[in-house]
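Hey, sorry to bother you again with one of my protein questions. I've been staring at a protein lately and its backbone has me curious. I owe you a coffee for this, so here goes:
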Amino acid sequence: MNHLVKTLLRLWIAGVSTAGLILGWVALAHSGKPAPLAGQAAANTGASTAAFSAPQLEAIPSLDELVANPSGGSQLSAPIQPSVTFNFPRLRTMGS
């Protein structure tokens, strides 16, 4: 290709990319706000939020409680990991 054509093509690609970035930025800046979530909409209107409350969970026992009282539930023990070894042949290079 001719040097002038390459230069013009590079300038065209740079200009179009810059214009696309600016137009996309402007389009996102002028777009509408997202709709609020259902829980936030109910809380904002003063409606009852009982349908959105989280379930109550029991407290997690500490490590000291589990060690001191192992009969309180399932016995905690480390799982047995089998020992696996792989024997791969050595890769040998011819001096390089």
In short: Helices lie at 3-29, 38-45, 63-68.
